[in-house]
Amino acid sequence: MIKVEFLGPMSEIEPKELKASEVATLGDLKAILQLDSRLHTWLPISAVAVNDELIDDVGFTLKSGDKIALLPPVCGG
Amino acid sequence: MLEIYQGSLPTQEIYAKWEAFAKGEIKDQGKQHTSFENLERFKNGALCVFTGIVRAEGGISALSFDIYEPLLKKWFEEWQRRANEEFGAMIFMTHSLGDVPCGESSYMCAILSPKRRAALEIYEEFIEDFKANAPIWKYDVIEGKRIYAKERSKALNGSGILSDAQSERGTTQADSKIFQNLASYPQSLAKSPLFMPKIFAFSGKSNSGKTTLICKLAQYFEERGHRVGIIKHDPGDKAHFDIEGKDSYKFYQSSSVSTLISPTRAVIQAKALEKSEEELFYATLKQMSNIHGLKFIFVEGLKHLPYPRLVVTRGEIDEDYIACASAFAIDESVGNADILPPHLPTLNLNNIEQIAEFITQYQV
């Protein structure tokens, strides 16, 4: 299983659990998330963390047990 | 030390705690950050405190915050480690979770360091990087409703990789900033000019005065308190450091890396093994920056590396060097200076101050 969480203002979207066989890379995840209309405005402005490490390569390989988080624009302070 | 509070920060209580820490009255519990061996009791001359207060504007009654703690901790610990290793400084930070009414404080940070100057330098960089990279989300609370402060937020590095909608980038204030700084997190920190030595390369034929110039520049900067590192290329493998039969020589022969530590220096000799010269160069660069918090690294030779480069020439200018040069340093013996393209700065090889100024000001 690969768990996908939506953080901050996206957190009303429930986390998704995907089979590792369906999402070999972040590119596969991209294809799945693009089908969810609630994410349309968020995807272009959100960063992706895999196991709490920000990743900027859509070819990044995923494995079972990975924890993915989508992070929209931030503003601390 | 990083702490998250539910609601408004008890600012005075937090300050009292940090001050106690500065006086050495509280010991690090060793949980939230790395060790502080560089932090000695009563050696700290500066504690720079920043407090962020919630402003009443746009009809809000409060601000509200969400935090993704695992990433915030990683980001913070990296800052803490570098500030401690390189400046003997310590960073404190607290942030609110949930609602903070107008007039109350939601963010406090402080830099504790032996010297005021380091504290002030870290202070500014740290707060800027916090604004751009800390995984915290802000909401305006208006008539009891929580509204995401999208326009004031900044997209993190690498945002938009799960989208094809390129054109939507730049719709928030954030995005414009982020794509100027594509360093991937948490390497954004490594890119901070506060921690990165400025690398400048030097080329020129043998006997051009290259070595003399590099030594004079290093001395010039060292005298002004800026530590300098030098990396020399030895394409002919001619340099000798060791005497056959000595223990250090035997250790080097029998291992991959041998190091000699004495009261005055450390000497590291690493065999190339299968690594290319370029790979060895980058590995060395990383080590050098880690050891002393250098302000400059001068590279002698290695013409193909993409660094700003000063070509040192006496006598005749060799056209082959023009392509790799950011500037030329020549003296009065050069007869064909007219072959240099007009956009290339030409410096006086004997004017160290001018060359030092050029290197200091040079922007890549």
Walk me through this protein's architecture.
The complex is a heterodimer of chains A (77) and B (364). Chain A is α+β, with helices and mostly antiparallel strands and 77 residues long. Helices cover 10% and strands 26% of the residues of chain A. Chain A contains one helix and five strands. Chain A has a five-stranded mixed β-sheet with strand order 2-1-5-3-4, with no helix packed on it. In chain A, strand 3 (47-50) and strand 4 (53-55) form a beta hairpin. The longest helix of chain A is centred in the middle third of the chain and has 8 residues, at 26-33. The mean pLDDT of chain A is 94. Chain B has 364 residues and is α/β, with parallel strands linked by helices. Chain B has helices spanning 11-22, 69-87, 116-133, 173-178, 187-191, 210-223, 247-254, 277-292, 352-361; strands at 2-6, 46-53, 62-67, 90-101, 105-113, 136-142, 145-148, 198-203, 228-232, 257-261, 266-270, 296-300, 309-313, 327-330, 346-348. In chain B, the strands form three sheets. In chain B, strands 1, 2, 3, 4, 5, 6 and 7 form a seven-stranded mixed β-sheet that branches. In chain B, a hairpin with a 2-residue loop joins strand 6 and strand 7. In chain B, helix 6 crosses helix 9. Classes of the chains: A alpha+beta (77), B alpha/beta (364). At the A-B interface, helix 1, strand 3, strand 4 and strand 5 of A face helix 2, helix 3 and strand 6 of B.
